[in-house]
Every structure is written in C-alpha cells, then in structure tokens.
Specification:
- Helix content is about 80%, strand content about 0%.
- This is 2TM domain-containing protein.
Length: about 100
C-alpha cells in the first residue's frame, strides 16, 4: 500500500501535473497554428504540390509522443503508479529474503 502524501507533496505533484498538461496544450495550439499557416502557403503560395503534409505528420508524431508521456505515462498515471508499486513490492521482497 502506498504511503499517504503530505499536503505539500500533493500540492507539488498537482502543480507538476497541471504544468505538464498545460505544456501539451500549448504545444498542440502552436502545432495547429503553424500547420494551418504552412497549409495556406502550400496551397496558395509556392509550388504546385502539397508539401505541408510532411511537417504536419512529422510534428504530429512528436505531439502524439508528448501527449502519451503526459497523459498515459506521466507522474501519477495509473500505469506508472502500478509499475512503481509492483517494483517497490518486488524490491521489498528481495530485501526481506536476504
């Protein structure tokens, strides 16, 4: 069973999680604005091919990984906490066996 967090630790963790989520939302907004601009240039500006799909896809992969790290694997996520708990229990068993 995990040890209860102090109010200071809860506040620190909440601020860290909120900051990570705000960072992703900022990243997503900039991604959208820049890619809309690139699409407009691609469609109505230079060249006859739609080249804007390449930065859209490349940056989109990075944005997806950023989202996974924040919302799935981030500090306090269910998956991460479960893995930490299992490792803690395994280490405590190994320590108790010696």
């Amino acid at each position: 069973m995990p040890t209860p967090l102090s109010p200071e630790e809860i506040d620190r963790l909440a601020r860290k999680r909120a900051g990570a989520k705000l960072g992703w939302y900022s990243h997503a907004a900039i991604y959208l604005l820049v890619n809309l601009f690139l699409f407009a240039i691609s469609e109505y500006g230079f060249g006859h091919r739609r080249w804007s799909v390449f930065p859209l896809l490349g940056w989109g992969v990075g944005l997806a990984f950023h989202g996974i790290s924040v919302f799935v694997l981030g500090t306090g996520s269910g998956l991460r906490e479960s893995m930490v708990r299992k490792e803690r229990e395994r280490l405590q068993r190994e320590r108790g066996d010696q």
